[in-house]
Design brief:
With 184 residues, this protein is of the alpha/beta class. Helix content is 38%, strand content 19%. The protein has one domain: Vaccinia Virus protein VP39 (Rossmann fold, 3-Layer(aba) Sandwich). A 7-stranded mixed β-sheet has the order 3-2-1-4-5-7-6, with helices on one face. The structure holds S-adenosylmethionine.
């Protein structure tokens, strides 16, 4: 009995590790969560971004759900949607958001997501992906949508305001399409 339990535990661990490694290999993005100071910066920037009372917020690549949970608690009247492609982090984020009425997560490639309802977007990805994400946002977002990029920024777009920690990259707020400076 204990041998079966041991084999199942090892098998499950291998499957989980392989599934995470495979999605990192395909997307080029690790499942690293935002740090607590980055989460604080995202919330502070969104608080001063004049979002509508019942804002719709998407976290593109929501990983383990860290930011989705924090945003849902910080903006109780908003709807916060995470989109995550990696199965195991997605399952954990489902558990973490289970008790939050204003949070949801989807197992999906965000390049296929409908983002037209978004009032705000957050993302913490990798530099190589940012040009395609920029194109995705250009095609899908209504003008004036607030976009927050953690650490890896959009080239050729104008930051409205940013917060910079001592030991890490900036967290920047854009008013999309962010071709010119707009006060947020
Ligand atoms: C660095 S983590 C950030 C997690 C979370 N947003 C946070 O701030 O804590 C980036 C996540 O994006 C996911 N990802 C990358 N490309 C994706 C895609 N096309 N669709 C959905 N998720 C994606 C990765 O699997 C990874 O979990």
């Amino acid at each position: 009995m204990s041998a079966i339990f041991w084999y199942l535990t090892v098998l499950l661990t291998v499957v989980v590790c392989l599934s995470i490694a495979l999605t990192v290999a395909v997307t080029g993005v690790p499942t690293l969560p935002s740090s607590s100071s980055e989460v604080d910066d995202v919330i502070a920037l969104l608080k001063r971004a004049q979002l509508p009372e019942h804002a719709v917020i998407f976290d593109l690549g929501s990983g383990w759900g860290t930011l989705v949970v924090a945003l849902a608690k910080a903006f109780p009247n908003a709807s916060v949607h995470g989109v995550e492609i990696s199965p195991f982090p997605y399952l954990i984020s489902r558990l973490r958001t289970g008790g939050l009425a204003n949070a949801s997560v989807r197992w999906e490639n965000f390049f296929r997501s409908d983002l037209k309802q978004a009032d705000a977007i957050t993302c913490y990805l990798m530099p190589g992906l940012m040009p395609s994400v920029c194109e995705l946002l250009d095609k899908n977002l209504k003008p004036g949508t607030r976009v927050i990029a953690n650490t890896f920024l959009f080239r050729g777009r104008t930051i409205s305001t940013a917060r910079q920690g001592a030991l890490r990259g900036p967290v920047a707020l854009y008013v999309w399409p962010a071709r010119h400076w707009v006060a947020a």
